[in-house]
Design a protein that fits this description.
The protein is of the alpha+beta class and 245 residues long. Among the domains are: 73 residues, Orthogonal Bundle (434 Repressor (Amino-terminal Domain)), CATH 1.10.260.40; 82 residues, Immunoglobulin-like (Sandwich), CATH 2.60.40. Helices cover 34% and strands 20% of the residues. The strands form 2 sheets. It has a 5-stranded antiparallel sheet, with no helix packed on it. Strands 4-1-6-7 form a 4-stranded antiparallel sheet, with no helix packed on it. α1 packs across α3 and α4 runs antiparallel to α5. It is elongated and about 75 Å long.
Length: 245
């Protein structure tokens, strides 16, 4: 068991990412990203979107999205039923008497019937009008009624996810975001066996011993230039040696 929100926040701060940049990259509104970090899941539109947003945000930060969804299910979902959301508490509670259970089931069924009736009435009166779902981009809807389902938009890779691992020996690194004059997001020695992940649209990396490192760009192995210290420029598309520009 781990803290969902604090883990996401630590990963974001470690990569020096801000919400405007994350909102543009993930297509999820900044207030929903903050709600995920604060574990205020009731501020999101629906449980289905909580899971989708949680998976997308975690994976963008380089984390295991399914692990966060599983932790959310185990803590906030009873029997993975989307209609019941209860936080998990320590200890066990005695089962309610049969009469109380029957009353709870009856009230739940009445609530479901009422919500279904309201949805049918709203759909009948409003027709197949455009529906804007918070957190998702504006989409064109056809006049033909379609089943309501989560909309997953393909995400265009605009940021470089550059992972460096010291395989053969240690190496000194200095990583700037944007340009050589940009802010330093990492400076130090990467010891043998250690791994660092850097995320940004454009990264400038001063590498002391590139020949001892193994690198991946957005999950694909890339070869670093050898022959002494090098300054490389990393974007979402490629890694190249800096020409000083």
């Amino acid at each position: 068991m781990f803290e969902i929100g604090s883990s996401l926040r630590e990963a974001r701060l470690r990569q020096a990412l801000d919400f405007p940049e994350l909102e543009q990259a993930t297509k999820i509104r900044g207030k929903y990203l903050r709600a995920l970090e604060d574990e205020q899941f009731d501020l999101l539109p629906a449980q289905t979107y909580v899971k989708g947003f949680l998976r997308s945000y975690a994976e963008y930060l380089g984390l295991d999205g399914q692990l966060y969804v599983d932790e959310y299910n185990s803590r906030y979902v009873v029997d993975h039923d989307d209609s019941l959301l209860l936080p998990r508490r320590s200890g066990s509670r005695p089962a309610p008497p049969p009469r109380v259970q029957s009353r709870v089931v009856l009230l739940t069924l009445l609530g479901i019937a009422l919500v279904t009736a309201l949805v049918i009435v709203a759909w009948t009166r409003g027709g197949a009008q455009n529906q804007n779902i918070p957190g998702l981009g504006t989409q064109e809807t056809s006049t033909q009624a379609k089943p309501l389902a989560p909309v997953v938009q393909p995400r265009r890779v605009t940021a470089a996810r550059f992972e460096v691992r010291a395989v053969l020996d240690s190496s000194w690194l200095q990583v700037h975001r944007g340009s050589l004059a940009g802010p330093i997001v990492y400076q130090g020695t990467l010891e043998k066996g250690q791994t660092q992940l850097f995320v940004g649209r454009r990264l400038w990396i001063d590498i002391g011993r590139p020949e001892v490192l193994q690198a991946r760009l957005n999950g694909t192995v890339v070869h670093l230039p050898t022959g002494g210290p090098k300054v490389v420029v990393v974007t979402a598309r490629r890694v190249r040696v800096s020409n000083g520009a």
